[in-house]
Fold this sequence. Notes:
By secondary structure, the protein is mainly α. The protein has helices at 2-28, 54-65, 73-100, 108-130, 149-167, 173-198, 202-229, 238-256, 259-265, 267-286, 296-302, 307-326, and strands spanning 133-136, 141-144.
Amino acid sequence: xxxxxxxxxISAVVCMIAGRLLIPVLRRLKFGQTVRTEGPQTHLTKSxxxxxxxxxxxxxxxxxxxxxxxxxxxxxxxxxxxxxLYGIIGFLDDFIKVKLKRSLGLKAYQKxxxxxxxxxxxxxxxxxxxxxxxxxxxxxxxFDLGAFYVPLATLLIIATVNSVNxxxxxxxxxxxxxxxxxxxxGIIFIYLTDVAxxxxxxxxxxxxxxxxxxxxxxxxxCLGFIRYNAHPAKVFMGxxxxxxxxxxxxxxxxxxxxxxxxxxxxxxxxxxSVSVILQVGSYKLRKKRIFKMAPLHHHFELKGYSETxxxxxxxxxxxxxxxxxxxxxx
Length: 330
């Protein structure tokens, strides 16, 4: 628990200090967000707000993780590298947006190729490192995915990364939801650390301890970022942050071996993606829209809810879902 707390504090402080230094630089370089005209009209006033603030989160995660997670490189480095690699894809996407003033950034096929390549490598690594056995937490049942592990793990990574990216549409929303999810995962990793130690699996115990630290660093990075991203935002995380956080969320789920919990604990991510799928499907099939606008948080905006109320609602729901899932480890 001490390492979890230290990693949260260090990551948060680093992120907040980085924000004081980075935001003025982004302003001077005129790295401002180009807001899509298809979005809520109230967001047009945010055009020009500095983006690529995800760099702050990545710095916090790195500094918050590395000093306390050196005992299990087979666990620490893949998780960190996945987070950073997806952050790099996001950085390239943001750079194109701010330099070329093209709101869509990288082309779709470029994003897909990059994301798929990383996901496949990580899926094979996890298969070799963790095995193919998954745990159904509430029922204390284990089942072997066998040959289905790699395609399912790949799908999970890509779906999670893009879901976290989609939810980043309201000030403080993505960082607020991810903060709660990561903290709950930190508690789960503490439990798994003790279980592995009691069973005499010392390397596995050290691995889960490292993941506890990583989860804490993600919490701290999000916490420090909210200092500048709460409404009205002084900086946006951009795809640099949202894709990186998506990679972190996916890796915590994979290493916990309880993939199904992600669907519950990450209910906000799931709802966001499902709302987009339903909206597109309904319009193509029936020429009718289900929501006023997708993703779901934009629907609530057009219904008249303020950004702060939307963020508060999402965080409350995520907290409840995470607490329910923690009962599986009580």
